[in-house]
């Protein structure tokens, strides 16, 4: 009788250890997938950050009186870029991600203010150099939107998997307690194609 109980307990422990090992591998794969998709988002963000100096330099030459708006965009870009560099291996649930989201929201608002300035200032709105730059930014914004959507899909799947049974037990045992943060798509895009 004791031997049978001992055998059943050993079998149960082996099953539990096996589930934890499989769960650990699955979580690592999902985190790696999230990281890979995040790298796409990051690449689009750097493209956008690299675009700003071109825009600002061109706008400075055309319109000297609105340098404060241009300066605000540059400062916000630098803050967002610094915050983005702080996000390392696990963008889905880090404090650095939250800091970047705040900096990115401010940068996006500064870009929207710049867009408004361009749309309300005829010499900016119709300048051929700025038209080409604006078209470039629209493409960057579309790619960024797509990358953010893919990241949110990947992070959403990670969250859903983490909360399902029996993976939720493995998640607790392996320390996966925080949900992946989702990117607020409407807050990350400054230039919408329909307003071009």
TrEMBL record:
- Which membrane topology term applies here? Single-pass membrane protein
Taxonomic lineage of the native organism: Bacteria, Pseudomonadati, Pseudomonadota, Betaproteobacteria, Neisseriales
- Read off the SUPFAM superfamilies from this record: LemA-like
**UniProtKB keywords:** Membrane, Transmembrane, Transmembrane helix
Q: What is this protein called?
A: LemA family protein
Q: Name one Pfam family in it.
A: LemA
Q: Where in the cell is it found?
A: Membrane
- Cited InterPro entries: LemA-like_dom_sf, MamQ_LemA
